[in-house]
Structure formats: structure tokens, C-alpha cells
Amino acid sequence: MLEQIVEPLVMWYDKNQRILPWRGGRDAYNIWISEIMLQQTRVEAVKPYFYRFKARLPKIEDLASCPEDRLLKLWEGLGYYNRVRNMQKAAIQVVEKYDGKLPDDYELLKSLPGIGNYTAGAIASIAYGIPVPAVDGNVLRVITRMTEDDGDIMKQSVRNRVQAELMKVMPVEDPGTFNQALMELGAVICVPNGIPHCEACPIADCCKAKEDGKTENYPVKGKAKARRLEKHTILLIQDGSRIALHKRPSKGLLAGLYEFPNLGGYMSEKQALEQVKSYGLTPLRIQPLPKAKHIFSHVEWDMIGYAVQVSELDHPPDEKMLFVEVEQTEKDFPVPKAYAAYAGYVNLRLGQYPVNNN
């Protein structure tokens, strides 16, 4: 069955592919950046990040040597920051071992930090014409519907099985186009969370799930582990036009990023004021802010907030706390989108504005 899909799928892709900034060439660095950015992130959201990242870090050597704060600022708003940390680790290895060129070898690509089967397959096939599959969520959805495979796609054994089946039919000539066509079909036709557009599918005649009227039954995905719920109190402390920022630890959730002071549990106004005083600050007024929520992969933050105006200071009261102008924060300090609901109260814009080149 899978042998029958290669030609019609490639022909459909040739006429219907979306114009995307990382397509239209075989630059391995471009492909790598885009594939890492696209993990857990929508295409439209990725476009401005891709342009900005390439403008600031046009070569792998630039990525390898980029200071951490600037690198995280470039990624601000994309989330899953370990993705870009691993990219930098991989870039350093590529510079040291491969003269700044991503290796044209599938197994060597997989040996680099943050590059698994899928990303290695995408780079190897699209950039270097190596006939290996690139199995992402879109591809899993297409293939499990076509074959009515009821295996749990969260299990590596099922992903390996799909990859092995595709390996048998990978075209030797231009395997990258075939892989991109499969991904594109899953992104725009055989869509998730809704009714697939089978009437526009170039390989609908090969699909068992369509034939049996069971497309909604596939793919099968096991229940995710329940997220841990955490309560937090966020303090927006302002000293005139400056806002208080605190750098998170170098390990753990949101490692190395800057945040508004974040305290465990829900605090009353009185407790929040006492906390501000404990920083050596003099609160002038306090305003409760609405509740907010942010969902990570394994934890959910339920937050309340307070905007606290304090008397102006010549020096920060705590070496771990910075008072920074909003404009400077937007340029230089990476703040995760977990705080987006509160950033607006201090006119701080996250994740979409130019980054300082200095």
C-alpha cells in the first residue's frame, strides 16, 4: 500500500506546497533551525522567529559562540528552551568536530545533542538526499489512518514500526521531497483535532480509515500523565519606570531565564507587602491583579499577582534582583511567556520584538 502513495504524493506536493522561508533550498542549517523551532509550535508562529534567528546567527559558528542571554532572548516566547540550549551544544560539537558543517550522515546527526530520529531524518533527506524517513506527528497520523494501525503513537515501538515501513518505500531520488510531502499532507489535509479533508487528499484511495469511515479513530494516543498543579504568587514590583526581575536557577524549569519575583502558594495582600519589605524595599501601594494560568508539558501554574509600587532606589536591595527599564528588558532580558498575562501591566512585550545586536 505504501508503495502506491509515493508518486501521487510527490506530484501533489509539487503543486500545492506552502511557501515557507526555510524551504526552497538544501541548507542543512536552515532545515535544522526550522525543524527544532517547529517542534510544539505552529508554522505561522515560527516564521518571525526563524527570520530573526537567521539574521542574528547566520552561521553555525555564530550559534556556537552566542552568549546565553542573547540566545534565550532570540527564543523568547517559543518555549521549551532546552531545544535551543541543545542546539548550541550541538553547534559547538559541529564546529569542533566537523568544521562548522552538519555531517551528511544520519547516524552522526543523531549523535548530536537534541537531534533525534525525526530531525536527523529531515536534515539527512532534505539537505543531503539520504533516503531515510522523517517521522513526526503529522506523518504518524497519515500512516496510521492509511493502515488503520491502532498502536499507541506515544510508544517508541510504534514510531519505530512506522519508520521501518516507510524505509522500505523511500525513493532513492529526492527522498527529502517525499518526506516533506508526507509532513505537508498531515499539516494541511490529514489534519489533527478535526475532520480531515479527504476530498482533497491525493492518496485517499489508499486509505483504509477513509474507506471504513473511521478516520476519527486514528491515530491512537495513550492518555498523558496528569499535570501537577502548582499555585504561585507573582509580584510586579516597580521602582518608578523600572521593573524588578529575578534570574531563575541554571537548572530546572525555565532555567537561566528572567522572571518577575515568583513565590510558591497564594499570598494575601498583607503577606505580599511583607514579602516586598523583606527584600529591603519600601512599598508605596499595592494593586491585586487577575488570576492567570500557564500550562507546561507536565505542570500547570495557577497564578495570582500583585502590582507593587516601591520608593525609588539608588541600588538594588538584593544582588539576585535587578531593576531594569522596560525597554532594556525587551532588548536584553529573556522573560518566558509563562508571564505574558502579567507583562502587559508593565507594558512589557514578550517574544516578538527586535533583539539588541550589541
Give a brief description:
It is built from 15 helices and seven strands. By secondary structure, the protein is an alpha+beta fold. The model has no long low-confidence stretch (mean pLDDT about 95).
Describe the structure.
With 358 residues, the protein is of the alpha+beta class. The protein folds into two domains: 2-217, Orthogonal Bundle (Endonuclease III, domain 1); 228-346, Alpha-Beta Complex (Nucleoside Triphosphate Pyrophosphohydrolase). It has 15 helices and seven strands. Strands 1, 2, 3, 4, 5, 6 and 7 form a seven-stranded mixed beta sheet that branches. Strand 1 and strand 2 (242-247) form a beta hairpin.
CATH class of the largest domain: Mainly Alpha
User: How does the overall form come out from the CA principal axes?
Assistant: elongated
CA(first)-CA(last) distance: 55 Å
- State mean pLDDT (0 to 100 scale): 93
Instruction: Classify the beta-strand content into a percent band.
Output: 5-15%
Q: How many domains, in number, for the residues?
A: 2
The largest sheet is:
7 strands, mixed
| Number of separate helices | 15
Poorly predicted residue ranges: none
> Judging by the overall fold, what is the CATH architecture of the largest domain?
Orthogonal Bundle
CATH superfamily of the largest domain: Hypothetical protein, domain 2
CATH-derived topology of the largest domain: Endonuclease III, domain 1
Gyration radius over CA? 24 Å
- The SSE string, one letter per element, is HHHHHHHHHHHHEEEEHEEEHH
